[in-house]
């Protein structure tokens, strides 16, 4: 699989002829909208920064859309969504919003995308169901999602093989990524795309990989 970052919480995952996208950016969002076709689209928070389904309906591709908790399967990809809470971009009078944590199994690997999570711990259902994590996408930006410190502590508890920080590019608090890297000890790999096979993650142990935009 090949993983690329398109800003904020948006990641495109391609494997074979299929394309999966987490939190595609919509028109009118904080960040520039994406524009590519996807076969599967997952939305963690109903906000323009993360719900751009129209923007990934492109060419001959019309995505199978997952917008919330439940169990799903499409094209050999198994998805579990778990309800959680976010405080990102609340409207007047709101104290919290619904966020969905996604666990995705494909090509023998487990990817977990925490969405715009604000709670420093996983809900019980997610704790029980999510076991070994190959790739963890964790928000680090504060400002309604996990802070750098909270993200580091949760990542330590979850023990993923690879950690990909998100919600730092074009959103989140200033120097959020730098603060997260400092919390994690300062060692990091930066790349514009991440190509992974199951054998590649076997010897990883909490490695931080920053996908540049």
Account of the 3D structure:
With 213 residues, this protein is α/β, with parallel strands linked by helices. The chain has a single domain (2-211), classed as 4-Layer Sandwich (Metallo-beta-lactamase, Chain A), CATH 3.60.15. It has helices spanning 124-129, 148-158, 176-183, 198-201; strands at 2-5, 11-15, 18-22, 40-42, 64-66, 70-74, 77-86, 97-106, 109-113, 135-139, 162-166, 189-191, 194-195, 207-211. A hairpin with a 2-residue loop joins strand 2 and strand 3. The longest helix has 11 residues, at 148-158. The protein starts with a strand and ends with a strand. The relative contact order is 0.16.
Secondary structure elements and pairings:
Blueprint: E1 2-5, E2 11-15, E3 18-22, E4 40-42, E5 64-66, E6 70-74, E7 77-86, E8 97-106, E9 109-113, H1 124-129, E10 135-139, H2 148-158, E11 162-166, H3 176-183, E12 189-191, E13 194-195, H4 198-201, E14 207-211
Parallel strand pairs: 3-4, 4-5, 9-10, 10-11, 11-14, 12-14
Antiparallel strand pairs: 1-2, 1-13, 2-3, 6-7, 7-8, 8-9
Helix pairs in contact: 2-3
